[in-house]
Specification:
13-stranded antiparallel β-sheet
Length: 344
């Protein structure tokens, strides 16, 4: 059995590939749906995992369930079927058993993030794209600016030979539709697979099995982002590792970002309380600083409280994101062509 954890782990209704939800992976938007928008960090080697200065790794097995029945509730706890009845367990939305596995957590999440994650060129690039998109002219004009939520994976439950009962329809749909490269191989509805027996001698019928290994729970820290309008004089002394420059905003054909104008001072731009009134102030940002902190749970009605508005936001976000990425590719290609011409 594994220990009962602090409520910063989120238990999934499906197992994800260890290559996807590795320590250091960044997730944008919603930790409960990590495959919607994410960028994986290179997996730690076995030698690094064995280094107790970097991580704490311990073997786990047995039965686990979600500590909270809230939609986005943090918390995973070990369950001894021999001590509880089937009736008590049936109230849980997720119940899984694993023959073996490991719980791996970073000992110093902030240090790992600052020294390993945010110094990775690919991570810096995707963070720059996401944060440029979040404050782009296109989002401002076609949707509603939303304060970016970005999370970093700082702990995992990697489990093998899992039998699960989940009431999460989206997890079951994912198991039936997603390739093995994205998540562990799932067999869908198993024949005769059960969880238990419980204290009353009864068993629970499972609806998903996965051979694994797969990530069934992840611990997250949230990125704390401060938007800046940096001096164009180049005399800013902010830490280079935690400061990420935003990309040129090429999302909107009419007008330019205010940040394209020269400025002699560096100032922080607070996220406006009234987006409709003061949202354009964010367009002056040309850089961000990032750190990490303990996350807050999303509210159950957090993203779903305004029908149609959330879907519209992410549709517009995807459009703006692709335009920014295309602009970066064009600029990089032009730079390479110029270097090649100079060399020749």
């Amino acid at each position: 059995m594994g220990p009962q954890d602090k409520p910063t782990f989120y238990l999934y209704g499906i197992g994800y590939s260890p290559k996807q939800l590795s320590l250091g992976t960044v997730v944008y938007g919603n930790y409960a749906v990590p495959d919607a928008r994410f960028f994986s960090f290179p997996q730690l080697s076995d030698q690094e995992v064995a280094d107790t200065n970097v991580v704490t790794s311990q073997a786990v097995s047995g039965c686990f369930t979600n500590a909270s029945d809230r939609k986005y509730g943090f918390g995973i706890e070990a369950l001894d079927p021999a001590k509880v009845s089937l009736g008590v367990t049936q109230s849980k939305s997720k119940v899984i058993t694993a023959k073996s596995g490991r719980r791996v957590t970073l000992n110093q999440p902030e240090t790992f993030f600052l020294e390993r994650v945010v110094t990775n060129d690919s991570i810096r690039k995707i963070l720059g794209i996401w944060l440029t998109t979040a404050t782009s002219m296109y989002i401002l004009k076609t949707a509603t600016l939303q304060k970016p939520r970005i999370y970093c994976v700082t702990g995992i439950y990697e489990l093998t030979d899992v039998v699960a009962k989940t009431n999460d329809a989206s997890s079951l749909n994912l198991a039936a539709s997603v390739s093995d490269t994205v998540m562990g191989a799932a067999t869908g509805v198993p024949i005769g697979a059960t969880i238990g027996p419980f204290a009353d001698g009864k068993t629970m019928e499972a609806n998903l099995t996965m051979a694994g290994p797969a990530i069934w729970a992840a611990r997250f820290h949230r990125l704390s982002v401060a938007f800046l309008r940096m001096s164009t004089k180049g005399d800013t002394t902010l830490p280079p590792t935690t400061t990420i420059k935003l990309y040129p905003d090429v999302t909107f054909v009419h007008g330019v970002r205010k940040s394209e104008a020269e400025t002699n001072t560096t100032e922080q731009i607070a996220w406006p309380k009234n987006i409709e009134k003061d949202g354009e102030n964010l367009l002056a940002a040309n850089a961000v600083t990032v750190t990490i902190s303990e996350p807050e749970e999303l509210s159950d009605d957090g993203e779903d409280n305004i029908e149609g508005k959330v879907d519209n936001y992410w549709t517009k976000f995807t459009t703006a994101e692709s335009r920014i990425a295309k602009g970066i590719n064009v600029a990089e290609a032009a730079k390479k062509a110029k270097v090649a011409k100079t060399v020749s």
